[in-house]
Amino acid sequence: MPMYRPPLRLPLLLGALLCALVGCGTAPQQAGPSSASVPSSQSPLTGKRQDVVMQAMAMLDRNYVYNGKKLHTGFDCSGLVSFVYKESAGVELRGSAADIASKTRPVPANAAVPGDLVFFNTLGAPNSHVGIYIGSGKFIHAANERTGVRIDQLTADYWAKRLEGYRSVL
Fold first, then answer.
1. Does 108 reside within a domain?
2. In a domain, 30, yes or no
3. pTM of the entire structure?
4. pLDDT in tens, 57-89
5. Residue 37 counted as domain residue
6. Which residue, of 50, 74, 79, 88, has the fewest CB within 10 Å?
């Protein structure tokens, strides 16, 4: 008779994933122009920042929907950021990626910590895409209709060439 195994709980999986992604060390540095854009150190996650990262991870694999702002239908990049910050930190962020950028404060790349926002120029316009930095040179964002909400590396060629900077809400 097979042994009953209870289903794994999402919080346990997310916690393990968070530990693996954030760790205790520093983000790996690569040679080349993109290395100056990736934060060089991490501080421990505490309070609202940890909640933001955990909530963002819980959104992985959700659908991408243009102008999407809802859990059950899907998100675009700014909708994902708005939803995560409202649910996890009680902070209301409305509007496009550029609108969110105008309401947040810049952070030097070497001072960015998990929970900060990372902005890109993907449409030939400043701050046209936004994601949530989760540490170790990675960010979560609503990428496109094909891939939905996912994790990407800041040092990947596409993102490194379009990175505009980090901004903080908390």
1. yes
2. no
3. 0.78
4. 999 999 999 999 999 999 999 999 999 999 999
5. no
6. 50
